[in-house]
Design a protein that fits this description.
The complex is a heterodimer of chains A (280) and B (268). Chain A is of the alpha/beta class and 280 residues long. Chain A contains 10 helices and 10 strands. Chain B has 2 domains: 159 residues, no CATH class; 76 residues, no CATH class. Helix content of chain B is 67%, strand content 3%. In chain B, β1 and β2 form a beta hairpin. The chains are: A alpha/beta (280), B mainly alpha (268).
């Protein structure tokens, strides 16, 4: 059970003056029940990669195989891939359309031919999972707050019970508590054996949460591996398009001043170790 | 997979070329001349000369002829439809008959003439937008329509509306594309079923699009007000249009070519 991306290349508008190479030779494996973070700057090809994972884009060359089904196959196979891989876009205004929250939630499941009973059940479950109170069901999705809209978008994708969930910048524009809550929730999904692909430009989030990090720069992989090895590498030499998260910057500075504190992303732990160092 | 074709009618392709550098007024007037010329042509074979001229123009402007022709793709059905109507409905010497359908000699001539006229009209008009940025285009139009302001024609407002509309076509294309993808990702099926079902399937695409359009209109209005936009009176411009010798030469060249083509056609 995995998504396998093998030397994936994608060219937009081939053969026209607007031809651009968005991805060249990207390899990636997403196992069920793991958290993969895709990090890169704007224009690095993150979103293009995301759309390949659920067959909205098909490779110019190379391959994307979802649970044994290659995405270059015919339409019926593409639909089964989309059923398996849920994709949440960055902006809620690109998908919210229904008259009520319950209709919005039912949109995906109905397209996948869930029965009314199943729709009712999955709606109730995912709403509570994402902390959306049930009295919202009859409200218009356009009248929700920004954070609620975003959570509704994720809920409406999760309602179809995908095996993988791809999120494009899910925390952009969210306040700190909302972000923390959402990330905790994604962690819970990983524990339930859903493969999460988290597209972000926030290196600190990726280092702290992911099982595997892939760094893209101008459509090429510049790093692929565990967060720990990425941290080691970052400390050794700068990676193009990435800078150290502030807390690592701080640790690095402290070590230069002779405080042997460990590299960590946990502020509390850093404070404790620093206190011990100062006292001794 | 491409859901919407971005290279369509009205696309501007920037390039460094003599045609791109011409004054937009010159290009607009030249296209009007060319369109008039195309309309005056009667002989179907004479359209070959328009084709040759288009190839010459496209090499001058560094835009591949393939891209120019691609621009006419959206109207090809209209062209065929028009030609078809003329082919079957023109009376005259019957060449072929099958039940109520008949093709006449005059019909063949009319069909090819009308079809080619329409086809070249679109190609030449498209050539204007390919080589002129929307900004230049509306500047040129505003300047050309300014004399009519005295009789109450809102030249500036028209030009501003056109600029905004043209400016937002690619943006809205992109937005539509993104909405389509978001709904396809949730399993929307836009390709199957009858006409009614497919129309219904587009509601989840159209509703967000309308919301976004109104949102954008409001944002734009606010941004314009924040910069004290008060209409066209007393407004100066950053790049005033300048009519150069090259423009006069280009205009005279086009005029001469159109005149020669039409005269030869009338003689033939």
């Amino acid at each position: 059970m995995s998504i396998r991306v093998d030397s994936l290349c994608h060219v937009y508008h081939p053969g026209t003056p607007l031809e651009t190479k968005a991805l060249s030779g990207v390899d990636l494996t997403v196992e069920a029940g793991t958290w993969v973070a895709v990090v890169g700057q704007t224009g690095s090809g993150k979103s293009t990669l995301a759309q390949h994972l659920n067959a909205l884009l098909v490779p110019t060359s190379g391959s994307v195989v979802v649970d044994g089904v290659p995405t270059t196959a015919e339409t019926s196979a593409l639909r089964s891939v989309r059923r398996k891989v849920g994709l949440v876009f960055q902006y809620p205004e690109h998908q919210l359309f229904a008259e009520s929250v319950s209709e919005e939630m039912a949109f995906g499941p109905r397209n996948w031919k869930f029965t009314e009973e199943e729709i009712h059940e999955t709606t109730r479950k995912t709403m509570s999972l994402l902390g959306l109170p049930e009295e919202l069901l009859s409200r218009s999705p356009f009248h929700l707050s920004g954070g609620q809209k975003r959570r509704l978008c994720i809920a409406s994708v999760l309602a179809s019970r995908p095996d993988y969930l791809v999120l494009d910048e899910p925390t952009a524009g969210m306040d700190a508590p909302g972000r923390k809550e959402l990330l905790g929730l994604l962690k819970g999904l990983v524990e339930e054996k859903i493969g999460v692909v988290h597209i972000t430009h926030d290196l600190e989030l990726a280092l702290a949460l992911a099982d595997q990090v892939i760094v893209l720069e101008k459509g090429k992989t510049v790093f692929c591996g565990s967060p720990d090895s990425l941290m080691d590498e970052l400390l050794e030499r700068p990676i193009r398009g990435l800078c150290l998260p502030p807390i690592l910057e701080l640790v690095s500075g402290l070590r230069d001043y002779g405080y042997p504190v460990p590299y960590t992303l946990d502020a509390e732990m850093l404070a404790l170790r620093l206190e011990r160092e100062i006292r001794s | 997979m491409k859901f919407l074709n971005h290279l369509t009618l009205g696309q501007y392709i920037p390039a460094e070329s003599p045609v791109h550098r011409l004054d937009p007024r010159c290009k607009i007037l030249s296209v009007v001349l060319l369109l008039a010329g195309i309309f005056l042509m009667k002989h179907p074979v004479a359209f070959v000369s328009w084709g040759v001229f288009l190839i010459i123009l496209s090499s001058f402007s560094r835009i591949p002829i393939r891209v120019v022709i691609q621009g006419a793709r959206p109207v090809i059905i209209l062209v065929l439809f028009t030609a078809g109507i003329h082919l079957f409905l023109t009376r005259g010497v019957i060449l072929w008959e099958w039940g109520p359908l008949s093709i006449t000699k005059e019909g063949v001539v009319m069909a090819s003439r009308m079809g080619l006229r329409l086809f070249f009209l679109v190609l030449y008009a498209g050539f204007l937008t390919l080589t002129t940025s929307p900004m230049e285009l509306s500047d040129g139009l505003e300047r050309l329509f300014r004399p009519f302001q005295r009789i109450g024609f809102p030249a500036h407002e028209m030009a501003m509306m056109m600029t905004i509309a043209l400016r937002f076509i690619p943006t809205l294309f992109d937005e539509t594309d993104r909405i389509l993808r978001a709904q396809l990702a949730r399993g929307a099926d836009l390709e199957h079923g009858g006409l009614f079902r497919r129309m219904k399937a587009f509601i989840p695409v159209l509703v967000p699009l309308f919301v976004i359009v109104f949102q954008r209109a409001e944002d734009l209005a606010q941004a314009m007000e924040a910069r004290c936009y008060r209409g066209g009176t007393g407004r100066s411009r950053m790049n005033p249009l300048r009519w150069k010798i090259a423009d006069t030469l280009a205009m005279s060249g086009i005029l001469a070519i159109v005149a020669i083509f039409v005269l030869i056609d009338m003689g033939a």
